[in-house]
Amino acid sequence: MAKRPPTRYECTNCGAQSGSYAGRCAQCGEWNTMQEQLTGTAVQASVRSGQQLQVQSVAASVAADQPRLKTGMTDVDNVFGGGIVAGSVNLIAGQPGIGKSTLLLQLAYAVAAQAPVLYISGEESAYQIGLRAERLGTLRSELQLATSSSADDIAATIANGSYQLVIVDSIQTLQASAISSAAGTVTQITNSTHLITAAAKQSGTAVVLVGHVTKEGAIAGPKVLEHVVDVVLQLEGDRYGGFKILRAVKNRFGSTNEAGIFEMVEQGLQPVDNPSAALLAERQISDGSIVLATLEGTRPLLVEVQALVNKSSYGYPKRAASGFDLNRLNLLVAMLERRTKLNLSEQDIYINIVGGMRITEPAADLAICLAIGSAAKGLQLKKNAVVFGEVGLSGEVRHVPHADKRLAEAKKLGFDGAIGPQQKTGKKLTGLHAVTDVRTALNVFLEKD
Asked: Which of 88, 117, 156, 250 could cross-link to 112 by cystine, CB 3.0-4.6 Å?
């Protein structure tokens, strides 16, 4: 047996070197910083033992292009970048009860009509999955089902190449036999993902993994999980109602600007054809109510922003926001006090984005400011218009992209136009009332009912 090349251990904090591993660096005293490093001898040994790679031209690599698997839902296909790519490893994550397993069972049912599909569950029994399939109307004899938490068995099944799509629910329940730690630990998640990824690439099987999230909403487990897979999808929304949004966080085969909007019904998750109309169906025109023209991916969406301003009963005024970042709200309130004549220092301010939506786009700034000003003074918009625009700390209204899409969506739902920033290109959009600063917007477009 060849002798193992010598190695050394180096502290990632101070650079101290040692011939053997130690849990604590003897020089700087930091724990778990000693990492194994190859010596010059080991590097040369690796070069001698390695084999030369087989290379090919880029043109030859795509000569035999494989068609993507269609999921039966246009919105889901768009988020994937046109469908699921053969040999890809995809991760979908979301809060418990948000609808991940329901969505994937629907997709498995649709794909099974055109290709062999295997649904593997490590969390539920076959009977439980069968009951869900019966409730959703997705019982299909071509759809195969298995229950296992062994990463080795799953990888062997994928490497066999009998299936074009394999769904694994979930990666946090899998265990690799070579690892002694419990399922869900960083080591198990990392090694199980590597096993499944290697099998998928070898056999050309598309794999969809279900991932858990932490209480903060981030994907649970090591960050390497997101780096290893090809596509990372996030299913967001209120688990008790409202719309669910499927968005791509990472996509090696398409854009991350696409988003699918769904609604949970008795038959599972169904795409919403006109979410703007559904969100504004019960809107009552009053002070503090402003319609925001935002974007979900590349799709324009009209959402009602509600503000309530009330005199504080305590020495410290309260700020609360539902569906909007509280830190951003505090910043906008401070800007309004400094750049306008609004006195909000003794006022409680509450912001609500209707429909359980969560808005992170900077274009919501102007709508939030107008809603606060409207609620504080008891005023309403003069125009039957939507609002969008980013607001800076000096009170200036800044350019945001796709103003034409926002304006077209507003006109489609019966609005006369939009209030927003001036366009950089100088191109005039019919129906756009341009404003340069938030103070002008408050003075010009708000009036008594």
From this structure: 117
